[in-house]
Recover the amino acids of this structure.
């Protein structure tokens, strides 16, 4: 099982090529690490210095003596579990894991297209997807790019309209020597100028709306 501990970043790492981890195996690996000299030195501000998780164990069903639940792990609120970038669909199964940073035991891989799933026999499925960037995050970034003021009080979106007109807009040449460069639909005069002055680059008006 390809597991390792990144004590500096407080991560339990599932490394390549592993894509499936049993919660009991994960527990045993972390417990072994915590009992090692290196694990005892790991900084932490939890129950005891060095604790990465606390095993709740397997709880006996009071109505069915001798029948126990699958293992329950309580993860240090400073720690998370992370699969390797580019791992695709990955999962932890066979137990319940709670805790972690902001009560999120799984940390997204940071790579688009990756999906990490915690299959809990009690609570169903918890999913950490790709880079952790939501569609709303993408929409917000796109909006900020388009509304960013470039120069002369024009936003990036407005600047693009003028650039599109300058590169591909239809030109209307008037008898008095002036010209108008149209928007794609021909309804707006994006750029107005005089070709008799300044080598034809005497711009007298723009409309980027």
């Amino acid at each position: 099982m390809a597991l390792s501990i990144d004590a500096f970043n407080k991560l339990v790492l599932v490394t390549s090529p592993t894509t499936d981890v049993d919660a009991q195996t994960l527990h045993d690996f972390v417990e072994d690490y915590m009992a090692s000299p290196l694990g005892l030195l790991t900084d932490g501000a939890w129950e005891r210095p060095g604790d990465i998780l606390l095993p709740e164990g397997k709880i006996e069903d009071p109505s069915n003596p001798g029948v126990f639940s699958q293992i329950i792990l309580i993860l240090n609120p400073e720690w998370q579990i992370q699969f390797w970038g580019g791992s695709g669909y990955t999962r932890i199964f066979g137990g319940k894991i709670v805790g972690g940073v902001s009560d999120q035991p799984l940390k997204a891989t940071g790579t688009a297209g990756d999906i990490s799933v915690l299959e809990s026999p009690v609570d169903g499925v918890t999913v950490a997807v790709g880079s952790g960037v939501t569609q709303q995050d993408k929409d917000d970034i796109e909006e900020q790019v388009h509304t960013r003021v470039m120069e002369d009080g024009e936003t990036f979106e407005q600047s693009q309209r003028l650039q599109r007109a300058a590169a591909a807009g239809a030109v209307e040449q008037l008898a008095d020597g002036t010209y108008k460069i149209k928007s794609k639909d021909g309804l707006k005069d994006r750029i107005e100028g005089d070709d008799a002055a300044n080598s034809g680059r005497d711009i007298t008006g723009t409309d980027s709306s």
Remarks:
- Residues 55 and 117 are 20 Å apart (CA to CA).
- The chain has a mean pLDDT of 80.
